[in-house]
Amino acid sequence: MGEGDASAGGSGAGGDPQRLKRIAAAAYDYENDARWAGYWSNVLVPPHLAARPDVVDHFKRKFYQRYIDPALVVEPMSSMTSTQSNRPAARSSATPSSENTRARDSGSSTRSTGASQQQSAERSANSLWLDGRTIHFSINAWVLVVASLGILPILPNHISSKVYRLSLLGTICSSAYSLYSTYGKPRAWNMPAIQPWLQSIIVAKDFVHLMFSLMMFTSNVHFKIALLPVLCWALDHVARFLRRNFTRSSLYRKYLEDPCLWVETNNTALSLLCSNAEITLGFLMIISLFSSRRNIVQTFMYFHVSYTALNKCVTCTSNFWK
User: Region Disordered: what ranges (predicted)?
Assistant: First the structure.
């Protein structure tokens, strides 16, 4: 009987596919996967939560579900935090004794004062953090509006040229701010400290956006198709910010929920559109070498920075048609 029960229990545990998938996700080598560094650098997590192991493990499972095994079921973060917060309360109220009750009553005033001070400190920290995120969102919303006007052939040439440069300038500010808020500055201004800092920044997606915008901003030739990736990047950031911070707003639920949901569900299609626009822009820059406004060094730098555009296009295409 004991051996039969053990074997039945072992077969039941091994037959749970989600349990095996969670074990495989936990054992996956994320540090040697270059996609994990780019994924984690673009996740908007509060600083006080980014250091928690359960939060990091949650996003590792999300990464594993997106890139390795789409069949993995990842529970929402809210249920995890609520479960963790309810466990100590249930454990403390299981068998209270009279001595613990008296001690709790005598120290209730002290704990309430400390809790109120802690809550006020957390509220002030969160307000400062939200201020930084709000600035980043405001820049991207401004880029979204300006790039939408600049990409349409409805403005005169002199205004269209200014809108083109303003859109790229806004993307430069947004990408630089995102890199600074994520990676900060080197610990010291010497080569041993600057080299790992640069290596961590170069693999980030915001660094590619920054270099792309800088090259297009300083170019002598203006291609309106360069605003298409800028528009998609700003649209993706604005949609993610609205879905995370304005879900309780009636204005958002009435007018913006469906567009934001569409952007999130069609993220692969938007990435494919950006990749195709970058490739088309590369061909246009090659053609511009035969004109009087050619810039050989800038064209070479564009292809050097945008080397991953073709690989990204192939990857997005394969994911799109799965």
Answer: 79-120
